[in-house]
């Protein structure tokens, strides 16, 4: 069985973070592991509290995973401080981690800040250069590229700039509107658009976490980056299209949309 590791924060409401990652990896038939960077007290309406892991404890979790079940791919999500970012970068280099997907989580859909302002530089210089692909949404790409984005051409300019500066492929996600949920992959000096069909579902909590975990799962299975992204987008469309409606705010997606077993029918 292929294996993947999520290095991310816990979302007590189960829609984003580690919980979304494990659901996504499991739905892809990949064995999921975790190294938790922070606990969040969070639901569909917002984040009420955050408790960071200590650098030493995060380091111990990474040692425990890498010295026993080596992951075929690694996804990195919420990491709030530069100290934790440095621990991750050092451990990934030490163990020679493969197929690293960096989701540069900065602000939750609900508006709460998940990355300290003074940690943006560490994210850029220590994590991005380790990434096979980074997956910023438009506001995150604006911060990483240090330019405003208000058109598809701006997305191309920003993705190219981030890719060139930090030596990684960049998937700039268009979920934050501009166009029709179209995402741009910039790799080796050229851009490729993945056309999306915008699904009229307000429950988008965890779409970014889910997309990056689906890409990591597909890379773990041996797909090339373009195929991994194309299939991950199909997964998001299926999970959004299943129109789950839970909670009083921006609810989570349904990761069970494609499982046709008797157990699932009974659960409906
Ligand atoms: N309404 C939608 N219909 C179809 N696809 C969508 C929709 N909203 C987002 N997506 C897709 O979901 C993926 C995540 O994109 P998005 O820009 O929402 O990331 P994000 O902001 O990091 O997510 P998050 O909500 O977790 O912060 C992208 O592939 C995007 O195109
Ligand atoms: C622990 C954690 N990680 C990531 C996100 C971002 O996801 P979203 O933007 O959908 O709220 C989150 N809310 N919580």
Automatic annotation (TrEMBL):
It holds the Pfam family Phos_pyr_kin. Gene3D superfamilies: 3.40.1190.20. One of its GO terms (biological process) is thiamine biosynthetic process. Residues 11-254 form the Pyridoxamine kinase/Phosphomethylpyrimidine kinase domain. Its EC number is 2.7.1.49, 2.7.4.7. The keyword ATP-binding applies. It catalyses: 4-amino-2-methyl-5-(phosphooxymethyl)pyrimidine + ATP = 4-amino-2-methyl-5-(diphosphooxymethyl)pyrimidine + ADP; 4-amino-5-hydroxymethyl-2-methylpyrimidine + ATP = 4-amino-2-methyl-5-(phosphooxymethyl)pyrimidine + ADP + H(+). GO terms for molecular function: ATP binding; hydroxymethylpyrimidine kinase activity; phosphomethylpyrimidine kinase activity. One of its GO terms (cellular component) is cytosol. This is Hydroxymethylpyrimidine/phosphomethylpyrimidine kinase. It comes from Vescimonas fastidiosa.
């Amino acid at each position: 069985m292929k294996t993947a590791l999520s290095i991310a924060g816990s979302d007590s409401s189960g829609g984003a973070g580690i919980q979304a990652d494990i659901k996504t990896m499991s739905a892809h038939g990949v064995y999921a592991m975790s190294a938790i960077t922070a606990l969040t007290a969070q639901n569909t309406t917002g984040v009420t509290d955050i408790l960071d892991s200590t650098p030493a404890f995060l380091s111990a979790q990474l040692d425990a995973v890498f010295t026993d079940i080596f992951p075929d791919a690694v996804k990195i999500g919420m990491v709030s401080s530069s100290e934790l970012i440095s621990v991750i970068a050092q451990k990934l280099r030490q163990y020679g981690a493969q197929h690293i997907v960096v989701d540069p989580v900065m602000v939750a859909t609900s508006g709460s800040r998940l990355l300290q302002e003074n940690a943006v530089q560490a994210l850029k210089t220590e994590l991005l250069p380790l990434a096979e692909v980074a997956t910023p949404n438009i506001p995150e790409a604006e911060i990483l590229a240090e330019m405003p984005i208000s058109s598809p051409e701006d997305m191309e300019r920003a993705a190219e700039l981030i890719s060139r500066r930090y030596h990684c492929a960049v998937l700039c996600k268009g979920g934050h509107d501009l166009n029709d949920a179209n995402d741009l992959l910039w790799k080796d000096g050229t851009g490729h658009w993945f056309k999306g069909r915008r699904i009229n579902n307000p429950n988008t909590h965890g779409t970014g976490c889910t997309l990056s975990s689906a890409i990591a799962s597909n890379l773990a299975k041996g797909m090339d980056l373009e195929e991994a992204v194309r299939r991950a987008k199909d997964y998001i469309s299926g999970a959004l299209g299943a129109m789950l409606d839970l909670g009083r705010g921006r609810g989570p997606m349904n990761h069970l949309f494609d499982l046709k077993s008797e157990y699932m029918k009974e659960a409906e």
